[in-house]
Amino acid sequence: MNIKALLTTGLLLTGCAVGPDYEKPALDIPASWHEGWHVAQPQDTLSKGNWWEIFGNAELNRLEEQALNNNQTLKASVARLEQARALAQISRGAYFPTLQFGVDASRTQPSANRPNNARNTSVSTDIQTNINPAFIAAYEVDLFGRISRDVESTLASQQQVQADLENIKLILAADIAANYFNLCAQDNEIRALQEIIDIQRDTVALTQFRVDNGVSSKLDSLQQETLLKNAQAQLDLLQNQRKQTIHALATLVGIPASKFSTPATSLPDGIPSIPLDLPANVLERRPDIAAAERAVAAANAQIGVAKAVWFPALRLTASRGWQSNELNRLFDAPSIVWSLGIGLTQAIFDGKRNLARVDFAKAGHELVTANYRQTVLLALQEVEDGLSADKALEDAVESNRAAEAAASQAADIIDHQYQNGLATSFELFIARRAQLENQRLVQQLTGQRFINTVYLIKTLGGGWQPPPYSNSNTAQLN
What contacts 357, CB < 8 A, 6 or more positions away? Predict the structure, then answer.
């Protein structure tokens, strides 16, 4: 038996793969963003992988690192990727022959009453011994590309799972950053609300003093007491919201909520600018779009796998071993046995089952193609939504900063009048409270803008570098 000759024969018989070759689905991509966002190039100061570092916050960096190490959803995705790699290796293994070694040994006593041979008048009942060790090789020739299409499909599925993993990392990082900036905004708002409550308490005390001295009515006192209770209720709700944000962060970083804590903090000083390319380039950066596109490639290959069953399957086999009835003569030259075989099978009738498999594969391809195009449309929508929200929040922050400045200036004027006896302390308390209310609103809007910036980065795919599953030389987000 010549294994090399067997493999050479198989390679010579290997033909072209049946089924359609993969072509990426065509997309109608706009040439520019509707919001008129300027085209920018990534700056050297921007992170190339850990995109959250562009915010320059040490606590956020620590939380992100914890999540990458401890998040259970991420660990499950890594395990799914290992499974996909194993499946791809299994399918690639079909390119190679299998070689097995087996030993068959038996000791048998024939029945004396078994039917006689027509040429023999007696039947031997001697105990018979048979020892048969052998090497067995088998190889399926990829005659019409069933194996190559299956490998193509599993490789695309592996790349899809890898893109899914990158997408989960992106979503996880964005959720942590959004919750962290929400926490920062809540801390700022709590501080502003506590100052409002302090002023409100003084206002209640002053109003009660005026009531006691007949300067104000009881109604004024009740109104100020109502405002104080409302502010205290808002503080209670806000502190509960902060606890829930802490609990959400704990789950994201993979730590029990009862064991997790983070100190009170403030929003960073400034929001980083985000480089934005044309829509077609942005789409290449998003791992969810990459995963959807790889699903199309895998489904396309499955059409070829299904069609290949219509064609003959060729299998080559070979074996070499020894057979003897005595162990001491097992490896003598006369004991050698070998065989070479070739098998060809062709489906003649299967009740249209394989036709249905092809139809199933084609429908699956149409399904994931539609999902891919829908994912692209949603991605474009998310970017446009993020851009418009950023512009609206930027304008709102600027308007409320102007309102805060005006309220601060008004409070300063009343304070000056109060110092000169031209305004009452009650008027000063009201002015300071209005100033703090505007400060609180600015903190709310600024926090929303930070959160929107995080999700805008997410919609753009994260950090600026090619993903590991890409062969493109174009700078991409992963």
Answer: 306, 309
